[in-house]
Amino acid sequence: MCRWAAYLGEPIFMEELVTSPGHSLIHQSREATECKSALNGDGVGLAWYGARPEPGLYHDVYPAWSDTNLANLCRSVQSGCFLAHVRASTGAATSRNNCHPFTYGRWSFMHNGQVGGFDSFRRRADMGVSDGLYPHRKGATDSELLFLYALEAGLEHDPVGAMVAAHEALREMSMLYGTTPHLRSSAAWSDGSRIYALRLSSDAIAPSVYYRWSDSRAGWAVVSEPLEVGQTGWTALEAGHVAVFEGAEVRVEPLGLMAA
Hints:
single chain; 260 residues; alpha+beta; seven-stranded antiparallel beta sheet
């Protein structure tokens, strides 16, 4: 499993989520508390929005705790919207192409979870991506394929419905050709002006998602785990729900994708 953090609000240095807090994303890369493995050392990535509509992107295969380029980047770059991810592979190789976030145009996406037995039907699943979009299939993960499926399903026009459809398509493939658990997912995606986050599972175990508004930052932090141990004000996203963050508002809605 992986850990991730996203931010939307007044521009801040990315270190305020990624490196500085007591239980920052870098801290979680070696001492996560709410996933099967405490270590998430199979690569790191950032996607951040600035003056251009398309996000900047950084990937590397170093563990986050030893990546000096990551620390320097987070200390120097300010953004009002960014996604950050530390990876724990569920089978795919450790490579830059398999590091999150993934981007396409103005969209960025990152994921924590699994599609059961994905390796056994990966070729079949890849065939669900159109010829026009397939050149953007750079890696071998189920996460990247979720993103491409969402783009195929109309992410640009229906960001929530398209992402749910992508999860449903891969869950159905897992039920036909894979193994249990068929789907476990916490995901975040953004167009630079909003952040979307969902938490769902085909069984009773859904990866964690929390969110918190900060008056001092005038912004939202959306994370796999709270950034300070014992810090108040964090809200756990209920399994089977999606949260949409825009400005100072958050809208939480139920989803229908929970059947085993």
